[in-house]
Amino acid sequence: MRVLHVITGLNAGGAEHQLRLLLRGLPHDCEVATLSNPGPVAEAIRAGGTAVHELTMRHNHDLSVLPKLRRLMRDGRYDVVHTHLYRACLFGRVAARAAGVPTIVATEHSLGDRVIEGRRTTPGVRALYRATERLGQATIAVSVAVAGRLAEWGVPEHRIAVVPNGIDATEFAFDPRLRRAARARLGIPQDALVIGGVGRLEPGKRFDRLIRAIAEVPDVTLLLVGHGPARAALEQTAAVHDVGHRVVFAGAVGHAREMLCAMDVFASPSDSETFGLAVLEALACGLPALYAECPPLDELTAPGAHAPPDTPGARRLTAYPEALPRTLRAELACLGERRGRRLPVPDLVARFDTGRLATSIGQLYERLAARPQRRTTQPLVQIKGARG
Fold first, then answer.
1. For the segment 5-33, what is each residue's pLDDT rounded down to a tens digit?
2. 113-145 core/surface letters (b: 16 or more CB in 10 A; e: else)
3. Which phi and psi angles does 36 have, rounded to 5°?
4. Which string of DSSP letters, residue by residue, matches 258-292?
């Protein structure tokens, strides 16, 4: 089976790394087309032996990419086109249908309730998405939260399959050498206490809450990893609260492992996460992880969940921002009691192993390819929470 994955960009980000990990596990002949921003993830995919086709999309409405995609798909004679992220889903599904590709699948890694890929989620944006969604056979949601948002957008539930994101825990294993190197490069003292956050610097991530919190937690450094439009506002918030000298902006990185190794406590104050993969990555690095929202943890630890796993180090933050400084101080006290030692990686992380991700999606390809190409009201398999 020949599969073409179409993605909006391959610079750095959660969806991009998910595609990289998926390609490692799929037993099919896969290639990748990126609409824009080829970067370190593109190079990593090529290094793994997968061809990457770079298409130059000048702006969000650049329709010239459609004939390029159609030509690529027809020449490649692909059995499946699998699109990733909003813009690639719009253009990729149209091109795949025009090229006569028999099976069209999409993955929605995150759907914002207000903004998606820099565009406001207006009724027109949602209507356009629904129109192109009908051109495929299935849309994969990476969490129940994303599935719910797809349903709110008008995607029929029988066309939605929930397949959680995957993680390769070995890629995030703690390494003291990486810790020392990262701190030296960032100018952070080796003996400093470091609270960290990872993610795009945008208002919805609520890193401003962390900045305000450390104003009440003396003698700690805040390490923020990522880039985005909110950086200037965050720097201003740090200056207003007189903690600018204790906030380090590391910028975007190709892989988060080194930055996680440099931290002592991880915090994700965002209350609008559709998956929260960074929380699982922090747990895989042996960090205590404080989070406001992380759907995979919430689903597996909810009352009545089947065999809720023991998750040492994971602590959900309360809805009250004023409690954050107290929670951070308590976590730092626990760190002192164990003399800085890392925590064991919780069993929950293994439930989201990338092997399960690849197996689930590979089975979906086979099932869709085998059935008659017609509309159906039979629900697709729902793989909720990666229970096993």
1. 999 999 878 899 999 999 999 999 999 99
2. eeebeeeebeeebbeebeebbebbbbbbbbbbb
3. -165, 175
4. HHHHH-SEEEE--S--SS-HHHHHHHHTT--EEES
Do 176 and 106 reside in the same domain of the chain? no
The whole-angstrom separation of Cα 89 and Cα 87 is 5
Report the run of H or E that residue 127 belongs to, with start and end.
Answer: helix 123-133
pTM, to two decimals: 0.85
Same domain, 239 and 158: no
pLDDT digits (tens, 9 = 90+) for 314-331: 998 887 778 999 999 999
234, β-bridge pairs: none
Q: Do 159 and 202 share a structural domain?
A: no
Of the candidates 165, 146, 120, the residue with the CA atom closest to the CA atom of residue 17 = 165
> Are 64 and 91 contained in the same domain?
yes
For a pLDDT cut of 70, what percent of the chain falls above it?
Answer: 90
Give the amino acid at 100. Answer: G
Answer yes or no: are the C-beta atoms of 209 and 271 closer than 8 Å: no
Q: Which domain does 218 fall in, by range?
A: 169-349
Joined tokens for residue 72: 């690529």
- pLDDT tens-digit profile of 192-239? 999 999 998 999 899 999 999 999 999 999 999 999 999 999 999 999
Residues 276 and 271: their CA atoms lie apart, in Å, by 10
